[in-house]
Design goal:
Elements lengths: L3 H9 L2 E3 L18 E2 L10 E4 L4 E5 L3 E2 L3 E8 L8 E8 L12 E5 L4 E10 L4 E11 L8 E2 L2 E4 L3 E3 L1 E2 L8 E9 L4 E3 L7 E3 L7 E11 L2 E12 L17 E2 L7 H8 L24 H6 L1 E3 L2 H13 L5 H5 L5 E4 L7 E3 L4 E4 L8 H5 L20 E6 L2 E2 L14 H22 L13 H10 L4 H8 L5 H12 L5 H5 L2 H9 L12 H18 L2 E7 L12 E6 L8 H11 L5 H6 L5 E2 L14 H4 L17 E2 L10
Parallel strand pairs: 5-10, 12-19, 21-22, 22-24
Antiparallel strand pairs: 1-23, 2-16, 3-4, 4-6, 6-8, 7-9, 9-10, 11-14, 13-17, 15-18, 16-17, 18-19, 20-21, 23-24, 25-26, 25-27, 25-30, 27-28, 28-29
Helix pairs in contact: 7-13, 9-13, 9-14, 13-14
Amino acid sequence: MLSKNQIILLSIFSLTACGGSSDNADSDLIPPPITDQLVRCEVQSNLIEVSSSSNINFHVEPSYQSLQPAVIAASINGADSSNYTFSWTQKSGEALVLKSTHSPMLAFTAPTSGRYQFELNAISDNNSYSAIATIDVVEGQTNQLAIRVDHQVTMGNGVSFRIDTPPSAAPEGISWCLAAGPDINVDLSNIENPLFTAPNVDQDTFSILRASAAINGQQSSDDVHILITKEAAITSQYFDSPVARTFSYQGNSPYKTVLRDCVYSNQLEQSCTIEQLPLIGQESNSGKQQILDRLLVSHQWMGENFEYFLDNLDADSDFATLLQSVTAIVISYDVRPSFYWVATGAIYLDPNDLWLLAEERDTINEAPDYRSGFGGELQFLMPWRYVKNNQYTSYITPRSTRVNRTPAEMQPDLASLLYHELAHANDFFPRSIHPYLQGPTLLDDYETRNSQQLLISDQLTVKYPLNSTEMTSLADVSFRGESASDQQKAYMPSDISSFFSADTASDYYAYSTRREDAAMLFEEAMMSHRLGIQRDVGVTDKPDVISADTIRVDWGQRGRIGDDSLQNRAAFVINEIFPELDGITLVNNLPQPIPMAQGATWSENLAISPAMKNSVNRISAAATANTPAVMFSGSRHLSAKD
């Protein structure tokens, strides 16, 4: 029999899932992947097991070369790795960039030849082991094939690898084979970026994939390794698909023993109580340290970058304040898209918005969220983008170009993501009600608030409802997958423009749920107010080839949130979520919307702000060659309802 919490969860479908940015911006418009069983390599290979003076065994490659991705793995005699926590430190050799130091798989690229030593500490509830691994790295050859990155993955979880493709030495004629491990079915639709699901295993198992290609006319190959780890059977109806291993960012967090079990576990069978894991704002002292105590990560760098963001890119303490309404922050390589979940009270962040170093980006799983082509028969598109000074503010360098990025380049996407997800958290449990939550779980309080229509988004709908029944019905098609009627299939962009422009939603996605309506208003207003970044929204045609240079705008606005007709709605949400701000003054001071040029392409409508209006009204296709793929309304989100 289901528990009360599970019945509530299943009946209200209270997952509110929104927006991690993705290199697959059009993932909702592409079909599910086709996978085939990967052929076995003619020559199989294995890591070499090296024993130590403790119970730790190291698994090393036959040889190591400089400038070549490499790995050292570890296992514990007679034990699965799930029983242990791991901590690697480099003891000798030229300093390496190490981003998987809490995994049984230590991935690295040695910049020079020489001897390198690493110490591993492995700790369980009952045992603690330590050992030193030593490897010799020889001088590598130029133009070697390189695959990134070796890592551990739980059985049943998604896996992605990527071949380096520098323009000066791009590999040609790429082929893949399986050099060791169980059979796997792989999606090779992008030959440089294989995707697959790790098979079930009876024990921790190594798998090795090999790629071969020609670089500057010379044949080259590289092996990439994964450790598929055996995990406990899934018993959770909250997390019923395999999740990555995570750990408390703060090793001394008072919530270390309950954090993972309460918010990101395949064994979570019912919601934890408020007593076990209260909202951050319910603590007597709820500053930065308390936020970091609630941080759960799959890689240490994710916590470090999040901490940096709070210290250096939250000048007005917006996010530190808004985070008071969550129980935890989960950042994991397998989270995509980001979401807030009332069942746990936590937000879940896609790390694609947090990386700074290329080595950090390497560790993020690329397995996309394939969707079923909702709204495929509709005759319009509704793209969006964030801009400042007539330039995109989203990070636009594709994954195939392996570079570092600055904190300033990270900030806009992460800020918009946090404003949105934390709007959801504060919609459900604003700070004003924290003293009055009775529990025993947040779901119990949610049920009470929801039944009385007390959420901010409920009150928004009562006070300032959206009026377009046409857009609401179309949202069911675009975001819920309902079948389009003949009338809806016949709507042209001009029809959508008249429906949308006359109403008071800031974005098409606002029609998917009242929760998203409130979150979109708050996100767009805060991005404009704090960062001077405005959101473009438009209605376009739907040509066979869809790109920023082919879709043509029927109607569009830059900074729609500044439209007079939206002011009362936006001000209400701001005042309820962030009462320290004067919502009406804030929205009155936002820039007035700028209309887009009808008939011009999405690219040509980039340079419409006053700073460039007199000199450049349109930009060429060449100038937008490196702009991101077109983002469509809802492309950072999964439809939510309750």
